[in-house]
Specification:
This protein has 89 residues and is mainly alpha-helical. The chain has four helices and two strands; from the N terminus they run αββααα. Strands 1-2 form a two-stranded antiparallel sheet.
């Protein structure tokens, strides 16, 4: 499905809202609420380089890495996750 849409400049995903105000994607395979591969194809469709001088972008990349590790580290504060990743390296 991603191969079909790779040359399309932008896509719109239909969503529905339930009585609590939560949004759910109607599409099954390619959506931002799906598996990691599906999310990655959407989030990184327009890529940017992370410059070594942009400390904020590097910190968000470290936080994402800590979130993917699991083991409860994703429940800690941002500063704790950044510090944890520095210790691992």
């Amino acid at each position: 499905m991603a191969t079909i849409f790779r040359n399309v400049p932008s896509i719109y995903l239909p969503v529905r809202i339930d009585y609590r105000g939560r949004l759910y994607c109607i599409t099954e395979y390619l959506n931002y609420q799906g598996i990691e591969l599906s999310k990655g194809l959407l989030e990184f469709s327009i890529g940017e380089k992370v410059k070594l001088t942009n400390q904020e972008a590097i910190n968000y990349l470290k936080i994402f890495g800590a979130n993917c590790f699991g083991n409860g580290i994703g429940n800690k504060s941002f500063l704790h996750r950044i510090a944890w990743l520095i210790i691992i390296n």
